[in-house]
Amino acid sequence: MHFTKERINALEKHTRTHLINSLSGYKSANLIGTQDKQNNTNLAIVSSVIHLGAHPPLVGMIMRPNSVPRHTFENIIETGSYTINQVNKAIYKQAHQTSARYPKGESEFNATGLTPEYLNDFTAPFVQESRLKYAVNYVEHQHLAVNGTELVIGEITDVYLDEVALQSDGFLDLQAIETVAVTGLDSYHTGNKLSRLPYAKKP
User: Fold this and answer.
1) Hey, what's the torsion of the CAs at 53, 54, 56, 59, to 10 degrees?
2) Are 144 and 135 in contact (CB under 8 A)?
């Protein structure tokens, strides 16, 4: 099949959205934990978390346009703190439900039955049920004029994980902790590792 630009644009909106969202393949599924200065908590699933660098440890994510209230983005800018919590097999349905539009005064933690957890005096809530999670301090954001989204960049300060995932060289075996990936907007998957390959060098 061949989808030209014209054919893509002619697709029904939801069909086009599913198609384009699926093109980037398997994406990480993460819950972003925040709270505002009045201690109202918020939890949102995000599939756009990306590694930006290890020295210093930086992570980025794309937030949707602020054409409607975006509580996660607003809380990050207000407080400068957030958590990133990987979704696993046991909680993926609850994680997906956080994408529903809840009013600011209603916490997605309460709505989905997930448990807020505060670790080492970090002000943003973690997801207790997540098996790999980390604290992030906001560094900067870039407004992307092309579509109105925001690239949020933060520095990782603390990592919490199930010990079974950690290998001797620092590699994390995500299959061991049943980490879930997402494709498109609503399809969730667990991974099966093929192998780890040696560092590639020119023959």
Assistant:
1) 50
2) no
Per-residue pLDDT of 56-90, as tens digits, reads: 999 999 998 866 568 999 999 999 999 999 999 99
Query: What are all long-range contacts of 176-180, with beta carbons under 8 Å and residues at least 24 apart?
Result: 177/86, 177/88, 177/131, 177/132, 178/88, 178/89, 178/90, 178/131, 179/28, 179/86, 179/87, 179/88, 179/131, 179/132, 180/29, 180/86, 180/87, 180/88, 180/89, 180/92, 180/95
Q: State pLDDT tens for residues 148-168.
A: 999 999 999 999 999 999 999
Query: The pTM is what?
Result: 0.94
Give the Cα separation of 21 and 129 in Å (integer). Answer: 27
The encoded tokens of residue 60 equal 């980025």
For residue 123, what are the contacts with CB-CB under 8 A and spacing of at least 6? 35, 79, 81
Contacts of 137 (CB under 8 A, 6+ apart): 80, 81, 154, 155, 157
| Tens digit of each residue's pLDDT (9 = 90 or more) over 113-148 | 999 999 999 999 999 999 999 999 999 999 999 999
Domains of the chain: 25-190 (2.30.110.10)
- The string of pLDDT tens digits covering residues 21-33 is 999 999 999 999 9
